[in-house]
TrEMBL record:
SMART domains: START (SM00234). GO terms for molecular function: carboxylic ester hydrolase activity; lipid binding; long-chain fatty acyl-CoA hydrolase activity. This is ACO11 thioesterase. GO terms for biological process: acyl-CoA metabolic process; fatty acid metabolic process. It comes from Elachura formosa. One of its GO terms (cellular component) is cytosol. The keyword Ligase does not apply. The gene is Acot11.
C-alpha cells in the first residue's frame, strides 16, 4: 500500500515538473524489499542484502528448464477449431531443443521421440503450456522430458495433454559430436527421472529387436480379416505423396530442418491418408516411438509418403494385466477399444538433382480415431492390403499395436495400477524388465526415509507412503561392488544367507540381465504350508559414474508354473538391491522392499524392536559376501 501511495505522489510530481530527489526516486523504482522503511546507509563491514532476501525462499529451479506458453489462434487450428497436432509437435520440439541447448551450450538436433499419447484436444482461445527440462545427459546425447497441458483462460481450468521424452544430440563445428557435462539432479522428482532415464534409453535401443522378435514368433498365416472383401477399402486408395521445400524459417541457425517441422509435415500427410479411409475428419491419438535417421538442410526437397497400414475393428483387444470388461462397454476409454487405424508415414530428402538417391530422414507410425458426437470412437472400414509389402505392413501394424499396448499399460501407468503378477511372455519382456527396474529406482529416490533401528553395522529405515510401508536395510561391506552384485543377483545362492529361502530354481534365462526363478520359502506362522513365488530378477550395471549396481525383483505369472496345492502362492511387488562402490574394496549394500500385506506383521515387529530377525538376516548376508568375495570357483560360475 505504501509503495502504491508513493508511486502516485511521484507521478503527480513528475506531471507538475517538480524535481524529485534522487534517493526517493531510487526508493520508488527499486521497491520496498519487504519493508516500509526508507533505505538506510550500511554500517561498515555490513554485507549488501540481495534483492528479495526478505521474501520467502523459492525452490531452486532446474537450470535446463524451459517454459513455453502459446495462445491458440485460428491460424493454428483445423476446421473444427482445434489445435493442429502438427503445430503442437513443432512447439514441443522447439521447447525441448531450447532445454537441450541450455545444458549443452551448443546447437542440438532431435534424434528420437518416444511414444506420445494425446489425451485431449485443445480449442482456439486456450493456452498451451509446455515445460521441458533435461532429465539426464549421457555421452553426446541427452533425454529431455516434456510436459504439455492446456489452460482455459475463462474458466481457469488446467488439463494435462501429454507427456513426452525426446533424445537430442549436441553438435559441434562441422557436425561433430560434443561430449556433454553430467547433470546433477536436485529434487526427488529429478532424481527419479534421472535414474529411470537409463532404463528408457535401454528400451529404445532394443525397440527394433522387440518388433522383429514378435513377428518371427507370430504365425506367418496371420489372419487377414478382409479376405471376404465385403466393405473393405483397398489400402492403395489411401496412399498420399506430397513434397515440401525446406526454407530458412523451417531450419535452425545451422541450416538443419527443425525436427518438429518435419513431424508437422508428416502429420499432415498422415491425416490425409486416414481421411481417405474413413471419409471423415480423424483425430490423432498416438505417435509411435521414432528416430531421425539423418539431417535435412535448407534447400532440400522433402518427399512425404503415407498409407493406412491397418484398421482395427471395434472389439476388445486383450491387454497385458488389464481384465476384460463386460459387453457391451459403451463408455470405455478409446485407448482400450480398437476403433482405430495405423498410418505409416515416411520422409525422404533430396537436393535439386533427383538423379541422386533420396536420403531417408524418418519413418513414423501414427494412430488415428474417428470420434462420434459423444466422443466415442466409431467403427472404421476394413483395409484390404495389397499382396507382398501391403500384407507385411498389415501384420507389422498388428504387432506394433500389441507392443504399444504393452508399453502403455506396463510401462506408462503408475506402479500401484500394475497387477502384481503380470503375465510374462516374449513380447512384453522388455517392458516388464523396465517396469521392474524403474519401480525399484523410484523407491530408492524417495527422500522421506526415517531411521527406525540400528544394530551394529546394519541400519533399518522405513518409508510410509499411501498404501505401502517400505523398508530399507543398509550396511557397508568390505567387498568390491561388482563382486557383491554378482553374488546377490544369483537367487540360487540366497538360501546360504537368508533362512527364509528354501530353494530357488532357475526357470528361464531370458537374457544376460533378466532371469525368472521359482522360489520356495519357509512356512509363515499362520500357514500350514510353505510359500512359493515366480520372480523376475533384473540386473543392471552402472550406466555412468555414480550409478549403483541394481538387482530388482518382482512377481510374474508363467503358464508353466501355475499355483499348486502344496504351496501358498506369494507375490512381491517391488524389492531388490542397490550397491554403491565406496572405494575399490568397500561397498554400500542396500536392500529395499515394498512390504505386502502378508509380511506387514513381520516387518512392523522388526521395526518396533520386538524382533531382530531382519537385522540378523543381513548380518548373515555380510558374512556370506565376505566369505565368497575371493571364491574363484563361484566367481567363474557367475560368468
Amino acid at each position: 500500500r505504501a509503495t502504491l501511495l508513493l508511486s502516485r505522489c511521484l507521478l503527480k510530481m513528475v506531471k507538475g515538473n517538480i524535481i524529485v530527489p534522487e534517493d526517493i526516486l531510487s526508493f520508488c523504482c527499486n521497491g520496498l524489499q519487504g519493508s516500509t522503511s526508507p533505505p538506510r546507509s550500511r554500517e561498515p563491514g555490513e554485507r549488501e542484502e540481495a534483492p528479495g532476501a526478505m521474501a520467502s525462499p523459492s525452490p531452486a529451479r532446474n537450470p535446463t528448464e524451459v517454459q513455453m506458453s502459446q495462445l491458440v489462434l485460428p491460424c493454428h487450428t483445423n476446421h473444427r477449431g482445434e489445435l493442429s497436432t502438427g503445430q503442437l509437435l513443432k512447439w514441443i520440439d522447439t521447447a525441448a531443443c531450447l532445454s537441450a541447448e541450455r545444458h549443452a551450450g551448443c546447437p542440438c538436433v532431435t534424434a528420437s521421440m518416444d511414444d506420445i499419447y494425446f489425451e485431449h484436444t485443445i480449442s482456439v482461445g486456450q493456452v498451451v503450456n509446455i515445460k521441458a527440462k533435461v532429465n539426464r545427459a549421457f555421452n553426446s546425447s541427452m533425454e529431455v522430458g516434456i510436459q504439455v497441458s492446456y489452460e482455459d483462460l475463462c474458466s481457469g481450468k488446467h488439463c494435462s495433454i501429454c507427456k513426452a521424452y525426446a533424445t537430442f544430440v549436441a553438435q559441434g563445428s562441422l557436425g561433430s559430436k560434443v561430449r556433454l557435462k553430467p547433470l546433477t539432479p536436485q529434487t526427488e522428482e529429478e532424481k527419479i527421472e534421472y535414474s529411470i532415464a537409463a532404463e528408457r534409453r535401454r528400451m529404445r535401443l532394443v525397440h527394433k529387436d522387440t518388433l522383429k522378435d514378435l513377428l518371427t514368433r507370430s504365425p506367418q498365416e496371420t489372419e487377414l480379416e478382409t479376405r471376404d472383401g465385403s466393405g473393405a477399402v483397398r489400402a492403395e486408395r489411401t496412399r498420399v505423396e506430397s513434397v515440401e521445400l525446406v526454407l530458412p524459417p523451417h531450419a535452425n541457425h545451422q541450416g538443419n530442418t527443425f525436427g518438429g517441422q518435419i513431424m508437422a509435415w508428416m502429420e499432415n500427410v498422415a491425416t490425409i491418408a486416414a481421411s481417405r479411409l474413413c471419409h471423415a475428419h480423424p483425430t490423432l491419438r498416438a505417435i509411435e516411438m521414432f528416430h531421425f535417421r539423418g539431417p535435412s538442410q535448407v534447400g532440400d526437397r522433402l518427399v512425404l509418403k503415407a498409407i493406412v497400414n491397418n484398421a482395427f475393428k471395434n472389439r476388445w483387444v486383450p491387454i497385458v494385466g488389464v481384465p476384460s470388461p463386460p459387453s457391451p462397454r459403451p463408455s470405455a476409454p478409446s485407448s482400450l477399444l480398437s476403433g482405430s487405424m495405423e498410418v505409416g508415414v515416411s520422409a525422404e530428402a533430396y537436393g535439386q538433382e533427383m538423379s541422386i538417391s533420396p536420403r531417408h530422414i524418418n519413418s513414423a507410425f501414427m494412430t488415428f480415431v474417428v470420434l462420434d458426437q459423444e466422443g466415442h470412437p466409431r467403427t472404421l472400414p476394413m483395409v484390404a492390403p495389397e499382396p507382398g509389402d501391403g500384407e507385411r505392413r498389415y501384420r507389422e501394424a498388428s504387432a506394433r499395436k500389441k507392443i504399444r499396448l504393452d508399453r502403455k499399460y506396463v510401462v506408462s501407468c503408475k506402479q500401484t495400477e500394475v497387477p502384481l503378477s503380470v503375465p510374462w511372455d516374449q513380447s512384453n519382456k522388455v517392458y516388464l524388465s523396465y517396469n521392474n527396474v524403474s519401480a525399484l529406482k523410484m523407491l530408492v529416490a524417495k527422500v522421506n526415509w526415517v531411521l527406525a533401528r540400528e544394530k551394529e553395522k546394519v541400519r533399518m529405515y522405513t518409508l510410509e507412503e499411501d498404501k505401502f510401508l517400505s523398508f530399507r536395510i543398509e550396511m557397508c561391506v568390505c567387498i568390491p561392488a561388482s563382486r557383491a552384485f554378482s553374488l546377490l543377483s544369483n537367487l540360487r545362492r540366497r538360501h546360504e544367507w537368508d533362512s527364509h529361502y528354501v530353494s530357488a530354481e532357475l526357470v528361464q534365462k531370458v537374457d544376460d540381465d533378466d532371469m525368472i526363478y521359482h522360489v520356495v520359502s519357509q512356512k509363515l506362522r499362520n500357514e500350514n504350508k510353505p510359500q512359493d513365488f515366480v520372480i523376475l530378477a533384473s540386473r543392471r550395471k552402472p550406466c555412468s559414474k555414480g550409478d549403483p549396481y541394481v538387482v530388482a525383483f518382482r512377481s510374474v505369472t508363467l503358464p508353466t508354473h501355475p499355483a499348486r496345492a502344496e504351496f501358498t502362492r506369494g507375490e512381491t511387488l517391488c524389492s531388490g538391491f542397490c550397491i554403491w562402490p565406496e572405494s575399490e574394496e568397500m561397498s554400500k549394500v542396500a536392500y529395499y522392499n515394498q512390504a505386502m500385506p502378508g509380511y506387514l506383521n513381520y516387518v512392523t515387529t522388526n521395526v518396533a524392536g520386538l524382533s531382530s530377525d531382519i537385522c540378523s538376516t543381513f548380518e548373515a548376508c555380510e558374512k556370506f559376501l565376505l566369505k565368497n568375495k575371493d571364491d574363484l570357483i563361484s566367481r567363474l560360475q557367475d560368468f
